[in-house]
Amino acid sequence: MNGPSRGLRLVIYLGLAIVLPAAQTPPTVHARDVRRVVDKECRDVLPAQAKIRACLNLLSDRRLSTAYLAPINSEISSAFQSLRDYDNAIKYKKIEIERAQAAVKQPSAADALPASFGAMSLRYMELGTLQALNRLTNFNS
Q: Is 114 helix (H, G, I), strand (E, B) or coil?
């Protein structure tokens, strides 16, 4: 082998070593873009059934930061609540609480949304309200 072809091969291999891993990972979305995506593709969708489908599709998007999973689960919970499906609303409210706590505990909390004591307290209060509504609904039927 001569020198120029060996150098060309080396450049190609190094280029592939850089390009292939980048092509395999999904592109990331920046924090301000995520808020717009969540608003457009989840929060602003009506009716409730379409909102649930849209938010579940958004949850399956691997480009979103884990910090935004709690607000999406909150939207799903509120949509189920408006449909008076309290079992599913409770399920997603618990997931929301779990995700909000996990986002705070992450060491790379640079992209995490702040979960204040008041916000967590409100989430637990909403969970208690959903559980009470579920009991009342089951008691009446």
A: coil
Listed in sequence order, the residues at least 6 apart from 56 whose beta carbon sits closer than 8 Å to its beta carbon are: 76
Enter the DSSP assignment of 131: H
pLDDT tens, residue by residue, 48-92 = 999 999 999 999 988 787 778 888 999 999 999 999 999 999 999
Q: Which sign, positive or negative, has the C-alpha torsion 13, 14, 17, 19?
A: negative
Cα–Cα dist 104/40, whole Å: 25
* DSSP characters over 23-38: HHSPPP--HHHHHHHH
Tell whether pTM > 0.90: no
Alpha-carbon distances, residue 76 vs 14, 37, 72, 102 (angstroms)? 45, 15, 6, 19
| Residue 76 burial class via C-beta count within 10 angstroms: exposed 0-12, middle 13-18, buried 19 and up | buried
10 Å Cβ neighbour count for 133?
Answer: 15
